Amino acid sequence: MVVIQVQGGLGNQLFQIVAGYLLARKNGESRLFLDVSRVPFGTDNSRRLEALNLNLFPSDFSIEVWGEKLYRFTSYFPSRVGAFASITTSKINSKLRFKRHFFFSENVSTKKFEELDANTILHGYFNDFSIVEKAQDLGLKSDLLLSSQPSRWLTNSLETIDFDSNIAIHVRLGDYLKYPQIFGSLSEEYYLSGLDEIGFSKNQPLIIFSDQPNLVANHLPKISRLNNCRIIRSSSAVPSYETLFLMSKFNKIVCANSTFSMWAAWFNQGGEFGKKRVVIPTPYLLDRVDMVTPAAWRKIPRTSSPK
Description:
Layout: E1 2-5, H1 10-26, E2 31-35, E3 54-55, E4 62-66, H2 68-74, H3 79-97, E5 102-105, E6 120-123, H4 129-137, E7 145-146, H5 152-160, E8 167-171, H6 175-178, H7 188-198, E9 206-210, H8 216-219, H9 221-224, E10 229-231, H10 240-247, E11 252-254, H11 259-266, E12 277-282, E13 298-301
Parallel strand pairs: 1-2, 1-6, 2-4, 5-6, 8-9, 8-11, 9-10, 11-12, 12-13
Antiparallel strand pairs: 3-7
Helix pairs in contact: 1-4, 1-11, 2-3, 10-11
């Protein structure tokens, strides 16, 4: 059985679980084991396992989850103590339960991902849409569905937004502001260039999504002051997977340097891959090589100025 050591937010969770699904399917497996004990520990300790709220896989494929109770317990500790306790317990569990499995660490192990068999523990981010496309060939769903009933906020949004005429803009702030040496911040010039590239016309409605909606106007003063611009302000009770689901409905999207909006861009292509008009920044992260993304997506340098 393939084991995934899940870490990070929803976008990263999706990449990791999809990589595990691909490896399992290639080796004739119909089950995946998720160790989620380390999900909250990293740049944002409020994170939770959310990827399974999206209906991604065929009905003949199952997922076993371990570690949710552990991270809920260790979340009461100071962050470093909680992370140490959670990861130590995870390692002990892996050695006892999967002692014959090969431990594959992305960018560290000399073995290639394509050479792995089902007796593997995967550790890494696997931010690579070529893996996603191969998983799609083996049953990964590209038309996004929720695994639970939508909130009233999501239902109302789906009923009132015209996804053909509106352009979605994603602005990632939050933990990105705390770690500028890793993530960096995107300039307003990038977003203006992205709108030019995507075919923005005067008076066309714009909708901005952000994890910090109260700060967006300071980061995008020109765009936010447009009469046709609206900043989404959802309740803190609305889960991030519902926001991703809503963003996935737009046909035009200017992404942040975030896997969250890139997944929103990937889903719901309408059967014709590349139908959406998508802009993404390059480089994706300051300390990492750009990820492999669909060829139809337009990459714009972070420092670009509008034409």
